[in-house]
Write a structure and sequence with these properties.
Length: 194
């Protein structure tokens, strides 16, 4: 949200293609509600807030299900995180050779406003064309998709194992309110403490 204020206040008149805001002083709330990075950023903050609040001790003790279900929102969080940069808020210059840093307009350097065209070809510090910018390609998916796929495979494996039938052989009530369950399950061996 702070970035949206900065995009509005730091609007570049020299390089309009570099801006996320449409004009200087654009209302940051409008940028947040009309751009992909704005909407997804708000959703990411809300999900983190829900996870944080539900992690408190009083909620975990009184209603564990709220804690459990809000923490499963991490999957939605990672999916939104992968979409967050699709809007192209961060951009890079594609023609640094023809428009080196420091020049503002073609045939002009940052130090001189008027340039002799004969000297232009000899001086590498002068612009030969306007600056061109392109948004960075989203790369979050490279770092998030692998662990997310491993998590999904592990959850699927746990689901298939949990759906196997269990035969209860005996239920014994011991003193001190201890209940002993004897069960049979295919391909399962209990270890002490399980």
């Amino acid at each position: 949200m702070v970035n949206m204020v900065n995009f509005s206040a730091s609007y570049s008149d020299d390089f309009p293609a570099l801006n996320l805001a449409r004009y200087r002083g654009e209302d940051p709330k409008l940028i947040i509600l009309t751009t992909i990075p704005g909407v997804t950023g708000v959703l990411l903050v809300l999900i983190l807030l829900l996870i944080f609040i539900s992690s408190s001790y009083c909620i975990r003790v009184s209603n564990y299900e709220i804690f459990w279900y809000t923490h499963n929102l991490f999957i939605v969080f990672y999916i939104i995180l992968m979409v967050h940069m699709v809007g192209g808020a961060l951009k890079y210059q594609t023609n640094i050779e023809a428009h080196p840093p420091g020049c503002l307009r073609p045939n002009q350097s940052s130090m001189e406003q008027h340039v002799d065209l004969d000297q232009l070809e000899d001086d590498d510090g002068r612009c030969r064309e306007d600056a061109h910018f392109e948004p960075h390609r989203p790369q979050t998916w490279l770092w998030v998709s692998g662990p997310l796929c491993l998590y999904c495979v592990e959850r699927f494996y746990r689901y298939t194992r949990s759906s196997a039938p269990v035969t209860i052989v005996a239920v014994i009530r011991h003193p001190c309110n201890v209940i002993e369950l004897r069960m049979l399950k295919k391909n399962f061996k209990a270890r002490p403490g399980q």
